[in-house]
Amino acid sequence: MQPVTTLVALVLSVPGAFLALFVTQSALSLPALIGLVMLMGIATKNSILLVDYIIIARQEHGLDR
Question: What's this model's pTM, rounded to 2 decimal places?
Fold first, then answer.
């Protein structure tokens, strides 16, 4: 279940980036594509950190879902 969470974060970040480009009426340029790659990296790192936090909270504090 943990890899699925990370992959869902990646899948949802790409349409969000394209929606932001559409709303702001910006062109799909090289800096925008570099930003998209950076966004995917940040979303991946954030989802991994959140999953690790949940695992630690369950193990050490006995928290439920």
Answer: 0.75
